[in-house]
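Sanity check

After download, print the first record. It should look like this:
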Amino acid sequence: MRSKILLLALTLALAGCQQDAKKPTPKETANRQWNGARGGVMASLAKDQFENGNLDKARDSINGAIKLDPENAGIRVLSAKIAIEQAQLELAEKELRFARQYNPNYAEADYLSGVVYQRWQKADLAYDFYSHASEKAPSEIAYLLAKAEMLVGMDRGPEALKMLQDKVVFFENSPVIRDAVGQLLVGQRKFAAGADMLRQASVLAPDDNTIREHFGLALFYAKEYNDASITLTRLLNDPKYATRSDIQATLGECCFELGRFREARQHFETATMTDPSAPGLWLGLGKSALQLGDLRRAELSLKKSISIEPNGNEANLMMGYLRLRQDRLPEALAAFKKVNSTDVNDTLGLCMTGYVLEKLGRADEAVQFYGRALKRSPGDELANRLMAGLQTQE
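Expected structure tokens:
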């Protein structure tokens, strides 16, 4: 009995010694605090160097900080950021694993791992990390948007849209989430709804021209041409947008649809100066000139468009109309036939071919083209009217 008591006492004494051995001494505690403070200073220096683009110096500084305070999750995350910028993704992910080990609730560590796996094109893993980050920091909109971006990249656009729509009220003053929702709606061809959401984003961020651009384009797709032209005109007042040929062309299309052909011609002309290799810009210029009766300018522009894109159906169609106005029927016939040869679903080209043949006195051939158009689209109004007119003449 006495031996058992002695054994128990010895065991307790040894356990106490082990606990004392694990407990840091005051000197060790002071050293750890000192090293932590020094590590914080080194990390602050590394952050400044990182933000100023001095990545090599930032790497040296952050390595020094890690040596002084290796279990600091914030230092590990900063090291990962530097590694990502240096395209050292393996090192970045290693540092982020350490950060999660030392602080499991560090949302930014998950977010940055999402960035790493996205660059590695591992969409499922990237999505999981973005989801974890968003769950840990639900008020951080960047994490939510990254999650939505991955859903879109995984062809899960409707799911991304619903997720963001559910959060619009939560982020009641955020133009960014409304911009994202608006773009997704436009991408799903819900143009009117997209324009409405982007209008809200534009009101919340009136000086953000990126949002204004998205808003203007949504209005154009929604066929709200007058509002689109006002928004895009304001956008072109920014020197960064003044040389954007696509914005000039879209504004030209708005003016064309509104019957403001002179303004349309001006915008298309400006666009062709910026990007003379785009056939659609020359086509827009040709269409506008044709509406103004400027046949010479229309011809030059349409020829330019066709030279860049010989099988462009709309350009060849417009060239056929031009030749009709010039009473150059054989050339009009050739242009319309070219449309027929490149677009098997087109009925307008067939109708116009038949119309020219009719004007050339080749009614039997005209009937064949009208018949082909009606076979493709029995309810085609133009084909039915032309066929009925020819039958009346007979």
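If your output differs, re-run the checksum step. Summary of this record's structure: The first helix runs from residue 2 to 22.
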